[in-house]
Design a protein that fits this description.
Chain lengths: 223, 223
């Protein structure tokens, strides 16, 4: 129990952890941005009247929601380049895996938002002579997105946490740098605790903010 | 693109997959049971009127919900033995990490369930002369647990998926054995795809059952 804490190793190598954090944030940012777009597309596909398109999209969504992210990351990293016969940089692999995963979750979130928009509002749109695209653009989307903002942000925080998995395929994110440093310096306790704290410091305020927004939205709906 | 698929490697190594799956089930099973127990206790502490107890458990819950499971796992694996001064096997480390994580997630589910039990029911309990412990045992808990069963189930499916992370600290679960096998057999496409399908085959039906229960419960509440 007489462990002597030496936090100077953390300060000494803080630039490494910081560079890792930047990679983690980049991975998360790009994946969230792409998933916001593709998730919406897939939600539309899922709700489309075309049976094949709808079922294919459902299969994609269920598959990515029901398999571990680690399996997806490893699969994209090792298998996809073989199937496509091209070289993919590890960063792109990381983005691809996280995006595929988050898109499946976002598609479901968008879908629940779109389905929650009251039918009579859409009928009003038809009565006003708006085209299907216009109704989607001006009536359904703004309301659907506003409703699901808390869910989208919560899932984005989830992806930030899941981004730590790319460390297992040698992408130099925060977790990777943390593990590397802890071996190099023989100070896993200080370094891994710091890594955990960094994740916490970023994720915690956002989750608190989400809760505030949720309470506000719930009150608005009650009114 | 002219990749020749050879699924013989799967049939020839079915026992490897099975052995990995058994380890995965053991880890998930034990963690779910311990996590549920921990979760109930933590939820009750979280709702206690004792300020210190409530805030301490809140800190525990937020910490484990806002840091990546991989970080928790690696921390328990490398750091906990140093702090405790004892040796922990990989299997035990994983159980500890996943139980602590599951406990935090389940606790929030139980808390929402407990808070959803109508106040007048508790008042009826007081009127009947039941003690606080009796009210918790006979009025609050049975209803709270029933209401949150879908959430607990989907949390457990997540835990099943997260359990693949134990492969990164050398515990020979399904994911670990698959990765070793894919390297040894040089057949990552067939093997890693099979791994993903196995996870899917187990997680997907439970997800469907969860949804069916959710719809039933929602109908019951409407009535």
């Amino acid at each position: 129990m007489g462990y002597h804490w030496e936090f100077y190793v953390v300060w000494k190598h803080f630039d490494m952890l910081l560079s890792g954090l930047i990679v983690s944030l980049e991975l998360t940012g790009v994946s969230v941005g792409l998933a916001l777009i593709f998730g919406f597309l897939f939600a539309i596909f899922r709700l489309s009247r075309n049976f094949v398109l709808s079922k294919l999209t459902a299969a994609y969504i269920e598959f990515f929601r029901c398999t571990p992210v680690l399996v997806q990351v490893v699969w994209v990293f090792y298998v996809l380049p073989m199937i496509l016969g091209i070289r993919i940089s590890s960063f792109v692999c990381g983005v691809l895996a996280l995006t595929l995963n988050l898109t499946a979750f976002y598609a479901e979130a968008y879908r629940s938002g779109i389905q929650a928009v009251a039918k009579d509002q859409i009928e009003v749109g038809i009565a006003l002579g708006l085209s299907s695209a216009q109704r989607t653009r001006y009536i359904v989307l703004p309301q659907a997105v506003r409703m699901i903002i808390p869910v989208l942000v919560t899932m984005a925080v989830g992806t930030f946490q899941q981004s730590s998995l790319v460390s297992t395929v040698a992408i130099a994110d925060l977790m990777y740098q943390g593990r590397l440093l802890s071996f190099q310096t023989y100070r896993p306790l200080e370094i891994l605790t710091t890594v955990a704290m960094i994740y916490l410091i970023i994720a915690f305020p956002i989750t608190q903010l989400v809760r505030v927004v949720e309470v506000r939205l719930a009150k608005k709906i009650e009114r | 693109m002219a990749y020749k698929f050879s699924f013989d490697v799967i049939w020839g190594n079915l026992d490897v997959f099975m052995a990995g799956l058994v380890t995965t089930f053991q880890i998930v099973g034990i963690s779910v049971v311990l996590g549920l127990t921990l979760g109930i206790i933590v939820a009750i502490f979280r709702l206690s009127r004792n300020f210190v107890l409530s805030k301490l458990t809140a800190a525990y819950i937020e910490f484990f919900r806002c840091t990546p499971v991989l970080v928790q796992l690696v921390w328990v694996f490398y750091c906990l033995p140093i702090i405790l001064g004892v040796e922990l096997s990989g299997f035990i480390s994983c159980i500890i990490a996943l139980t602590l994580y599951a406990g935090a997630v389940y606790a929030e589910a139980f808390r929402s369930g407990i808070q959803a039990v109508a106040k007048d029911q508790i008042e009826a309990g007081i009127a009947l002369g039941l003690s606080s412990a009796q009210r918790t045992r006979y009025i609050v808990l049975p209803q709270a647990v029933r209401a949150v069963i879908p959430v607990l189930l989907s949390n457990s499916v997540s835990l099943f998926k997260e359990s693949s992370l134990v492969s990164t600290v050398g515990v020979s679960d399904l994911m670990y054995r698959s990765r070793v096998l894919s390297t040894v057999a040089c057949r990552p496409i067939e093997i890693l795809t099979t791994t993903a399908v196995i996870y899917f085959i187990i997680a997907f039906p439970i997800t469907l059952i969860t949804r069916a229960i959710e719809i039933r419960l929602a109908k019951k509440i409407e009535r």
